[in-house]
Amino acid sequence: MNRILVIGDLITDRYRFLNPLRSDPANDSALVVERIRQESVKGGAGFLVRNLESLCSTKVNFFHAPHFRSLPMKTRYYVEDKFILREDKGDNIKHEERIIDGFINYIFPEDFVIISDYHKGTLNHEDIFRIIKKCREVGDVTIFVDTNYVYPAHENVDWLKINLKTAKEYINKPDNDIAKIISEKNNSNVIITKGEDGHIAYLKDLEQSIFFTKDKNKNFVDAIGAGDTFLAGFVSYLARHNTGELPALVYADIVSHLSTSQLGTIDVVSAEVADEEYKNAKTHIEEKEDVLHVYRSVSDVP
Fold first, then answer.
1. Does 54 fall in a domain?
2. Rounded to 10 degrees, what is the CA torsion of 269, 128, 104, 64?
3. In angstroms, what CA-CA distances link 285 with 223, 281, 297?
4. 151: buried, middle or exposed (CB in 10 Å: 19+, 13-18, 0-12)?
5. What CATH number is attached to the domain comprising 10?
6. Helices 45-56 and 226-241: crossing angle, nearest 10°?
7. Domains in the chain, number
8. Burial 257-285 (b: 16+ CB within 10 A, else e)
9. Domain extent at residue 291
10. Model confidence over 80-134: pLDDT tens digits?
11. Contact, 183 vs 202, CB < 8 A?
12. For 38-95, how does the pLDDT look when each residue is reduced to its tens digit (9 = 90+)?
């Protein structure tokens, strides 16, 4: 299996679960609560890494700011399991050149290199240029970029994964054309996730557009971290099987689907559950001109 290297922003995800007691005597609209429990997990690129390690059953090489630094924290508050608000603390990570240098020096042939850029400070544009250049010099390295903003620094990677909002901000075109246009502009294979509406992909060497749709998830809880789990599913499938973009895209959607059936980033998706769901997946594929339409029926997730 290919080595997987990830560089990106490590964020702390904290969850506080509260129980309502009564209204405040001085203000009926204010709720008095007590804390039931609290959980803290690795978020941001850390959540991607946690899912990759679960799906691949192997250690992922993760380069990030040291834990002793003051890392960004997202605290989500739940009352009776209903998400009511998020508190953010810190939004910047101190840039350290030695992290970039260490990552670049660790890249070897056949590696899968993932740049997970939450734009918190671990990476700047020059860093991304350097990483891509080193990958091309080494040769036979597959580069994945997951980002919320598309910049020239992201050009010429093997795979660019973004969501539809990011795609529209980058180039405002109809959904049917947007992945192809971004691919031609960026010189990369492109995946655009659309939440519960599936995803769009464009494979540049095959000049093939793929429109992926599925049943609604009856067990939907929330979409927190769904993009990270999609990428984890896609990369883990390629790393384990080393073939097949289309089955990898189906597997990625299944992993993301399973993630949205659980709360936030507390738990990861296991390979056992994802593989079983993939084995039983029912897909219908229809080709119209240069567009592949893939539809997947969704079973109820326990």
1. yes
2. -50
3. 26, 13, 12
4. middle
5. 3.40.1190.20
6. 40
7. 1
8. bbbbbbbbbbbbbebebbeebbeebeeee
9. 4-21+33-297
10. 989 999 999 998 999 999 999 999 999 999 999 999 988 899 999 999 999 999 9
11. yes
12. 999 999 999 999 999 999 999 999 999 987 778 999 999 999 989 999 999 998 999 9
Angle, in degrees to the nearest 10, between helices 125-138 and 97-105: 10
Find the helix or strand (DSSP H, E) in which 72 lies: none
Q: Could you report the per-residue pLDDT of 135-181, keeping only the tens digit for each?
A: 999 999 999 999 999 999 999 999 999 999 999 999 988 778 899 99
Q: How far, CA to CA in Å, does 240 sit from each of 14, 55, 112, 275?
A: 31, 9, 11, 12
302 occurs within a structural domain: no
Q: What is the Cα–Cα distance from 284 to 200, expressed in whole angstroms?
A: 16
Nearest to 54 by CA among 211, 240, 289: 240
* Structure token digits, residue 144: 């994945």
Q: Please check whether residue 26 lies inside any domain of the structure.
A: no
pLDDT at 9: 95
Separation of alpha carbons 133 and 103, rounded Å: 13
Task: Read off the tokens for 221.
Answer: 């809880």
Mean pLDDT score of the chain: 93
Residue written as tokens 């598309």?
150
**Residue 300 pLDDT more than 70?**
no
pTM of the prediction? 0.94
